[in-house]
Amino acid sequence: MRAHRFGAWARFAVGVFAFALLCPRGGHAGVKVVEQPDFSLELGLRMQPRLVFLQIPASGGGLEMERTFLIRRSRFKANGKMLTASYNFEWRLDATGLSSGIVLTTPIAGVENAWIQLPLRGPGLQVRMGLYDQPFSRDRLTSDSKQLAVDRGAVSNVPAALGMADNAIGFDFRGDVKEGRYSYAVGLFDNRTIPAKLQDMPMVVGRLDLNFGSTKNLFRDAQFGEESWYSLGVNGIYHGALEDTTGADDGLRSAAGIDGIIDIPAGPGRLFVRGELNTIRVERPRSDISLNTTVWMAGAGYLLWHERLQPMVRFDQVQPDDDQGGATQDITLVGVNYYQKGHNLKLQADVRLQGGTGESIDEARLQWQIDF
To answer: Could you tell me if 346 and 338 are in contact, meaning their C-beta atoms sit under 8 angstroms apart?
Structure first.
């Protein structure tokens, strides 16, 4: 077992070195295809080749480290403006995927983040409709291409598994006040994890952001330049009148959360600190038992070496109520990001250390991101 682990880590180190050598020094930020007074179109592509070492059950018992190379995400993007409306569209073609330790070998194609946004009364009141991330959880609203770690964490994955975060069909009213100092969104969405006939009422989702520093590019885990960012957000979801197959309609799902970031120049680099806490409540029809879960995260990174290198650490905890009998999960991620052209071209590496597994290292990931 130890020899196998040493060999896996030797290959991981070689992979890091090879990726660093192969990374080019340039990059692009999208291509304007059409630019007219009443219509514009910009095309782009995001691709995330990833090398993963993951502890999986061994045939003879126990665990062993398995290596996987995959294209985690491949997204073709289109966005622009039509008259006064803005629009966005992504088509995903992920040939392989990795989810909860399971490698998917069947290609997955689909549409994500397809929406149109219309101004109703300037920037202070607009309406967005389509398929997109409902306004809940900073971790989920921060693109997978701009994360501190290689991927998002439990703080948004737990509500996402219940359909309370991530892409959903719906609409919301949103706006920016005082040049973006205050931002809000409130709307109605379908929960993608509940069959339509069992959710007569849509989810009500709302969020408020308070931005005390810069108001540009708020949802990213590393900023560049000399500006300072201070942001605090609160959000909530309520989804009632959920039915079961017997027709009982007293089911309920709700969540509330708070999050914030600080990203400021500090010494020879930039300091980034981020935190988020979400509480989730689930009540099944015909049941007096309420399943309550608290999930939170805290992360930090320091950007240095001419804004190229960012060591980072992130801690996630999932804590069910004591009377539910579930075990608390403690997850620590330690890694480093190497930026060649901001978030458009970067190399990321991290390791996952999870409490209670009996393993010193549970997972290691190396990802090269091309986003233009």
So the answer is: yes
